[in-house]
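From the pipeline queue, job 12 of 40. The input is one protein chain; the requested action is below.

Action: predict structure.
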Amino acid sequence: MSKIHKLITLFISVIVLYQAPLCEAVEWQSLDSSQQAILSPFSDKWTTLDEAKQLRLLQAAERWKGLSPDQKQMAAERLQKWRSLDEQQKHAVKKRLREFRNLSDDEKAKIRSQYKRFQALPEHKKQQLRERWKGMSPEERRKATERYKQRKAKQEQRASKERK
């Protein structure tokens, strides 16, 4: 086969490949009863969803099946809270999530640890901290964050010396 013939074959193959859908559309009737029950809010518009969206929803339905009743309740509450946000608030949350995903694994672990510590506090203490934070100006917040980081670094230095 000549070089030009191989190039034409490759070119045609690439065109066909890129025009083929990455995943097949799923017919609503082909879903099992549990999938249909979970995805019922999408039943009316299922055929208008692109294949990738259908796939993401099916994957979410499978994850949902594996959740405990408590986890399902918590997820439902989070979804309700998300729906109550306006577009500007949703944009801010998505931005923070992107920033978090770009952090190193160590930085993510520190944030998760701090969050767990916060969650372990009594409710009245968490509320006090929230109110205090809300009452701060951006400059005060920046300074408080910097002081916290400095204290944390000193604690880590002391702990490191004690281990030696």
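Job complete. The mean pLDDT is 85.
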